[in-house]
């Protein structure tokens, strides 16, 4: 049951991320930063994609994804179409990976040490949904400030 809920939440919020990127009136504003705003929507989008591909795709989907976290925040001016394509690929990756996790697996220890102490897979997946939503809210606010 939790797996289906997680799949629904990731699908909903990744599609909302795609919509937010599409809604920018001017593509260059996706990368705009100003005083007090240190991360552009484009960099937050890349960060979300990197995060999910690392902690879900590579770990449970066995995709072989190798993360370059620094690049998520330093890369600039990736075309909107490429961001959207990466979001769509991430939706498929996350969904496929979640299909490999059983309800029993949720209670097991998450294989990577991400925080100060080990957590369950269930905790990590729920954390990833809130992490996505947090940055999605930042992107929405960024877009509305500029538009």
**Percentage beta strand:** under 5%
Shape descriptor reads elongated
**Biggest pleated sheet:** none
Number of DSSP E strands: 0
The residue-averaged pLDDT reads 96
CA-CA gap between termini: 39 Å
Q: What's the tally of helices?
A: 6
Helix and strand element order: HHHHHH
Structural class: mainly alpha
Low-confidence stretches: none
Mind telling me the C-alpha Rg?
15 Å
Helix content: 55-70%
What is this entry, summarized?
The chain has 147 residues and is mainly α.
Can you put this structure into words, describing what you see?
- The protein is mainly alpha-helical.
- Helices cover 67% and strands 0% of the residues.
- It has six helices and no strands.
- The protein has helices at residues 2-23, 41-60, 69-74, 80-98, 103-107, 121-146.
- Helix 1 (2-23) runs parallel beside helix 6 (121-146), helix 2 runs parallel beside helix 4 (80-98) and helix 2 (41-60) runs antiparallel to helix 6.
- It is elongated.
């Amino acid at each position: 049951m939790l797996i289906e809920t997680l799949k629904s939440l990731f699908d909903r919020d990744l599609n909302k991320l795609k919509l937010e990127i599409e809604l920018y009136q001017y593509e260059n504003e996706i990368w705009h930063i100003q005083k007090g705003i240190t991360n552009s929507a484009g960099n937050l989008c890349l960060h979300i994609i990197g995060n999910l591909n690392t902690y879900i795709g590579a770990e449970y989907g066995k995709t072989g994804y190798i993360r370059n976290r620094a690049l998520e925040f330093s890369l600039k001016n990736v075309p909107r179409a490429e961001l959207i394509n990466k979001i769509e690929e991430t939706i498929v990756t996350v969904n496929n990976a979640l299909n490999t996790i059983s309800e029993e697996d949720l209670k097991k220890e998450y294989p990577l040490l991400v925080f100060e102490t080990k957590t369950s897979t269930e905790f990590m997946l729920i954390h990833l949904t809130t992490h996505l939503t947090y940055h999605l809210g930042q992107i929405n606010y960024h877009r509305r400030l500029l538009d």
